[in-house]
Amino acid sequence: MTNTHSFSPAVPVHTYQRIVEQIEEAILSGEIPVGSQLASERDLMVQFSVSRPTVREALRVLQSMGLIESRPGTRGGPQVLAPSSKTLGRSFRTMIGTDALSVSELVQYRVILEGSASKLAALSHTPEQLDRMRLAVERMQAAADTNAEDFASADLEFHEAVWAASGNQILEMSGQAVSGVLRGMMQRDAEGEHHDNRVKLASAQIDRGLFDAIAARDAQAAGKIARGAVADRFGPLLAPAERAALELLAE
């Protein structure tokens, strides 16, 4: 019997997208320095062996991404701008979405991210950010007995609030970048046959404890709770050697 799968239609990749990818990589890697100018349209046409309209479309996309800026009266091509957090987040999401990262690496990253962000959030949160966390925890507790999707959404909202409260743009940016992966893991976990309401209530209680530590500005306790929660929740997915490494990170 032939297995079937619901695939999406294949979408052809336009030539200009390949140009965008190469120039973006060169800018992010520092191969093309910030403040320098790209080659002229004519030179790019020769380098990429494409037509002028293709080069112009690639440049338009790069400009919309905030990587280059066309300035009237300048010689050569557009000026290269410093990558914004939005641009870096896009690149990070691309990396996370590939098969190059293992589940173990992703879980290890979560331990580091959640622990560090929670410690910083305990030190630097604002009253508004604390209210956002409180509401998210209350939503988790209310949804634990009713709606798995609402529970996962509230859980993610709580962690996004912690990332934002850390005051560290890199932590917030990278946290946002993995939010899609986290949502998928949370929803599968919440809807699995082995995940009953008691487990969801326990998860909400842990986040409530994390909230209390952050509200009390107890950075050490907040970091420990956050690291332990990730290790306990996702450790069973890992091999024994990987779990041992995870426990070291969670200490």
UniProtKB/TrEMBL annotation:
<dbReference type="InterPro" id="IPR036390">
    <property type="entry name" value="WH_DNA-bd_sf"/>
</dbReference>
<keyword id="KW-0805">Transcription regulation</keyword>
<feature type="domain" description="HTH gntR-type">
    <location>
        <begin position="13"/>
        <end position="83"/>
    </location>
</feature>
<protein>
    <submittedName>
        <fullName>FadR family transcriptional regulator</fullName>
    </submittedName>
</protein>
<dbReference type="Pfam" id="PF07729">
    <property type="entry name" value="FCD"/>
</dbReference>
<dbReference type="Pfam" id="PF00392">
    <property type="entry name" value="GntR"/>
</dbReference>
<keyword id="KW-0238">DNA-binding</keyword>
<dbReference type="InterPro" id="IPR036388">
    <property type="entry name" value="WH-like_DNA-bd_sf"/>
</dbReference>
<dbReference type="InterPro" id="IPR008920">
    <property type="entry name" value="TF_FadR/GntR_C"/>
</dbReference>
<dbReference type="InterPro" id="IPR000524">
    <property type="entry name" value="Tscrpt_reg_HTH_GntR"/>
</dbReference>
<dbReference type="InterPro" id="IPR011711">
    <property type="entry name" value="GntR_C"/>
</dbReference>
<keyword id="KW-0804">Transcription</keyword>
